[in-house]
Amino acid sequence: MTNNAIPAVLEPEDLLTMPGGDHYELIDGIPREKSMGAESDEIGGLLLTQFNVFIRPKKLGRAYPSQTGFQCFPNKPKLVRMPDTSFVAAGRLPNDRTPEGYITVAPDIAVEVVSPNETYEEIEAKVAEYRSAGVKLVWVISPKSKTVLIRRANGTCEELGEAGTLSGEGVLPGFTCAVADLFV
Known about the structure:
The chain is α+β, with helices and mostly antiparallel strands. It is 22% helix and 24% strand. It has a single domain (36-183), classed as tt1808, chain A.
């Protein structure tokens, strides 16, 4: 699809019906192609698998891949973000089911894997938006430095290297993942 075929300003519903719309985020009504590389997509997939192995048997909630859109930003109705991986705790979705369109509650955990074409400013903007929507944990995974930056709702921040272990903390108690396992 060429950019000429995409209207200048969209409503979130327009993006749902647009061919290839699942590859776009919506920023103030403007479609922006989601930047993904094979490496970052693989890392997001590995974490998605780890989430599902942990949460599914215990029915703790739902994990979502990179093409799931969240329209959960109270002051920005034309903003749709697609974290590379996300988790929503049980009982938070209407009827505890995944909706057909966008998810309108903030994920409990949002994961962004830095892609080759993303800038620091773009990642920081996403983190700020997630935090403003009430996301409890944001993990920013850098394949280049093999680190994970943890941003918490209370404003604290921590960086883990390959020797570290990600934890679901109070958001997903009992979940752990060795950082090194994300970079195999």
